[in-house]
Amino acid sequence: MPESGARGWWTRFFSLLSLFWIGSPAAAEPPCDRYPTNKQVRCAAIWKELNEQGEAEVARFGLAQQKRREEGKITAEQHLQENIAFIKQATEKRLKLLDKRMAKE
Q1: What is the maximum alpha-carbon separation in the chain?
Q2: pLDDT 10s digits, 39-83
Q3: CB 47 within 8 A of CB 98
């Protein structure tokens, strides 16, 4: 699978997995509702940008995970647990970056 295809697949995979992790599609929306209405559009744009910037990291992690799984170094359960931990950490990181960027706005 070409890298861009793999990256796209892993990005979609983590997006779907994060929906299940968070609980609902509505909860997966940008966390911009806490900002005043006049700043929510800018917040959504920043959130989208941060997610796009994270795609390469997600792809690298996903490909490394898949390789480890195929080599028998991790079980399916470990694979899922590590994916969930990665998603949680990556989301927390993006939320902190969003807060910093919005504070400058």
Answers
A1: 51
A2: 999 999 999 999 888 888 888 998 999 999 999 999 988 998 998
A3: yes
The whole-angstrom separation of Cα 88 and Cα 105 is 26
Strands (E), 1-105: none
What tens digit of pLDDT does each residue of 9-39 get? 555 665 555 544 444 444 445 689 889 999 9
Q: What is the radius of gyration, based on Cα positions, of the chain?
A: 15
Closest CA to 11 of 69, 83, 70, 78: 83
Q: In which residue are the tokens 């892993």 written? A: 10
- Contact present, 11 and 59 (Cβ < 8 Å): yes
